[in-house]
Amino acid sequence: MKNSLEKETRERWGDTEAFKESKRRTGSYSPEQVQAIQEELDTIESRFAALLEAGAAPQDPAATEMAEEARQHIDRWYYPCPPPMHVALAEMYVMDPRFRAHYDDRRAGLAEFVAEAIRANAGV
């Protein structure tokens, strides 16, 4: 499965600067850095889920701050991720069944909540 996902990723985005930058950056990370990056992402997703569980709206300041933190996570560790690019990723989170399942397995409705918070953070 991992090889087919890597192949798909390369086919879809292999010619983009973001993909090249991500490969450049991640190629230099130690196993400890990879683990820390994954733990940071897990914390972000858990905090999103907690906001949804608490009844926050995606437009609430706490949710848009989480969206900004998620955007900065991508920007810091993978590739420059300006708000319009983050909005495009948000669309993928709800449209691609694999991404939707990733979020919704954590908490039902989380994919849409995250996507809406990202859109609100970007002002769209």
What does this structure look like?
- By secondary structure, the protein is an all-alpha fold.
- It contains seven helices and no strands.
- It has helices at residues 2-13, 17-26, 31-53, 61-77, 83-95, 97-106, 110-122.
- Helix 3 packs antiparallel against helix 4 (61-77) and helix 5 packs antiparallel against helix 7.
- It is globular.
- 19% of the residues are buried.
Structure at a glance:
This protein has 124 residues and is an all-alpha fold. The protein has 7 helices and no strands.
Main traits of this protein?
single chain, 124 residues, mainly alpha, 0% strand
N-to-C series of helices and strands: HHHHHHH
Rg from alpha-carbon coordinates: 15 Å
Which structural class do the helices and strands define? mainly alpha
Shape: globular
Q: Which strand-content bin applies to the residues?
A: under 5%
Q: Quick one: biggest sheet?
A: none
Fold blueprint:
Elements: H1 2-13, H2 17-26, H3 31-53, H4 61-77, H5 83-95, H6 97-106, H7 110-122
Helix pairs in contact: 3-4, 4-7, 5-6, 5-7, 6-7
